[in-house]
């Protein structure tokens, strides 16, 4: 799928300069930027959807962990006394 992209002269020069310094083509620089942007925005959307689902589940069940319970559990990570995730409660 061929797509054209119109950018102003200043941005075009910046892309060309960066491409030259990185020994890449301007096309590669622009493609990389678009890929990184799309991946970041997809991750952000996924995080938001996960947060909304978690909030919905909490509203339905009331089950949760307190911040202190989570911190206590996380503090065991990487130690010989590493613990499994605690059980949620009301």
From TrEMBL:
Gene3D superfamilies: Met repressor-like. Pfam families: RHH_1 (PF01402). SUPFAM superfamilies: Ribbon-helix-helix (SSF47598). Residues 2-41 form the Ribbon-helix-helix protein CopG domain. This is CopG family ribbon-helix-helix protein. It comes from Parachitinimonas caeni.
């Amino acid at each position: 799928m061929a797509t054209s992209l119109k950018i102003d002269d200043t941005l075009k020069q910046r892309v060309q300069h960066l491409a030259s310094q990185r020994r890449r083509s301007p096309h590669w620089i622009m493609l990389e930027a678009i890929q990184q942007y799309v991946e970041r925005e997809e991750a952000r959307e996924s995080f938001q959807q996960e947060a909304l689902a978690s909030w919905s589940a909490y509203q339905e069940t009331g089950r949760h962990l307190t911040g202190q319970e989570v911190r206590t559990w996380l503090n065991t990570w990487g130690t010989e006394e590493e613990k499994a995730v605690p059980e949620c409660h009301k």
